[in-house]
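Design a sequence for this backbone.
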C-alpha cells in the first residue's frame, strides 16, 4: 500500500479552510452567546445587579468552536446523508448538543476540582441548583446549532462555494 504525501499547497489549503471554518463557528457562537449575555444583563439590571461577562462569551465561543471542529473531524452526526435535509440537520444538531453538553459537564467537573470540589459535588451542583439553567442552555444550543447545520447541509448539497456565492457574491441561481 503506497501512501501519498500531501503537497505543501494542499496542506496550506486545508489549514486555511479549517481556520475559516473555525472563525465562522466562533463568530456564530459569539453572536448566540452575546444574545444570551444581553438577556441576562437586562434581567439582572432590572433586579439591580450589574452583569456583563462579554469575555466569558468570547471564551465559550472559542472553546466550543474548537470542540465543534473536533466533532466534525470525528464525523459526529453524519447519518441520514441521502435523506431530506431536515433529517441530517436535526440529527447533527442533537448529536452535537449531546457532545457539547458532555464536554460542558467535564469542564464543570474540572473547574470544581480546581476549587476543591469532588466530582459528586460538581455534578450535584449542575443537576441541583443549576438544573434549569443547564436545561435552558441545552435547548438554546440546539436552537442555535440547527440553522448552522442546516446551512452546512445545504452547502454540502449545492457543492463547494456555491452557497457562499449565492449569499455574498451573486444571488442568481445557478
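Sequence:
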Amino acid at each position: 500500500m503506497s501512501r501519498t504525501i500531501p503537497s505543501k499547497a494542499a496542506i496550506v489549503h486545508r489549514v486555511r479552510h479549517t481556520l475559516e471554518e473555525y472563525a465562522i463557528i466562533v463568530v456564530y457562537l459569539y453572536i448566540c452567546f452575546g444574545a444570551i449575555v444581553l438577556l441576562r444583563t437586562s434581567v439582572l439590571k432590572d433586579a439591580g445587579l450589574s452583569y456583563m461577562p462579554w469575555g466569558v462569551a468570547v471564551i465559550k465561543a472559542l472553546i466550543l468552536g474548537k470542540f465543534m471542529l473536533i466533532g466534525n473531524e470525528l464525523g459526529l452526526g453524519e447519518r441520514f446523508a441521502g435523506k431530506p435535509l431536515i433529517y441530517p440537520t436535526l440529527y447533527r444538531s442533537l448529536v452535537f448538543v449531546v457532545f457539547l453538553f458532555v464536554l460542558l459537564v467535564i469542564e464543570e467537573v474540572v473547574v470544581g476540582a480546581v476549587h476543591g470540589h469532588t466530582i459528586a459535588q460538581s455534578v450535584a451542583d449542575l443537576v441541583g441548583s443549576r438544573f434549569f439553567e443547564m436545561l435552558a442552555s441545552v435547548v438554546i444550543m440546539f436552537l442555535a446549532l440547527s440553522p448552522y447545520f442546516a446551512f452546512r447541509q445545504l452547502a454540502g448539497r449545492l457543492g463547494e462555494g456555491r452557497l457562499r456565492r449565492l449569499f455574498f457574491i451573486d444571488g442568481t441561481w445557478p
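Residues 73 and 127 are 30 Å apart (CA to CA).
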